[in-house]
Amino acid sequence: MRRVSLATALGLGLTTVLAFAVPASGGLAATALGGPIRPVRTPQGNALRNVRNQVTTENWSGYAIAKYETGSNYTSASATWVVPTASAPPGYSTGYSSSWVGIGGFCLTSTCSKVDKTLIQLGTEQDASSSGATYYAWWETLPQGSQRISTVTIKQGDTVVASLVDGPSITHAKGGPGGGGGKGGPGGGGKGQTWTLSLADKTTGASWSTTLRYNSSLASAEWIEEAPYSGGILPLANFGTATFDPGSANGLSPNLISSDGIVMANPNGQTSNISVPDSDSDGFNACWGNGPALTSCSTLPSS
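User: That's the sequence. What structure does it adopt?
Assistant: Structure tokens below.
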């Protein structure tokens, strides 16, 4: 694939160099995987931050709260979102987007000098091609590949509720250290922590859950709209506006603030901006864009 580099302003008073790929051909990729955050880096190697002190990435947009700031381990997270309608972005025959809630995979320091390689995720996929759009639910525990949830049929406009819980330990979303930990691996537990993953489509009433072992760092909780990865970051489907509300961490409101935000400048030329948190600090909008400048993104109405 031929790649062209150009300097582009991100629309928030910052400039970086991004590689824009020529359009891909063919149908939807056989495997589109989620993955850890991929920050855009400054010449000094730090994560690029905008004027709101939000991390700029190639693949994530949304919000994350992290242990390096709060001192908390994150042993549960939940999210409610409306499945957005997907279409292929201009100049591409295919586009991909994922909406999910997760634990891990975020920066381990304020400069993002280290990225968490553990990540447990639960979400929906919204992919589009010239023949139409595909929607489905999935889960993933890195480094394993994503697993489709075949028992729940997802459509655009459905309201989805998803949660991840490690055992019975619940503490403060932003406060003292949480549970999990111990010996034997990241986040503790030589045989792995015990996670219960649950997803329900509130529109249709369908639901799914599973229990599994996984060693998480417990170092962050996040609510993300993502450009998936399959041999490279894929073109981000035009999802319009994706609404996440409400969310929780460790059983309580995550108390999101603007600087917890993450914006995306995809190397294929698409962007995803975010609104400021809503009035009760547990929800936000993510807004798709095309070209060098982030599109504006309105705040959720009071809930």
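The chain has one domain: 39-290.
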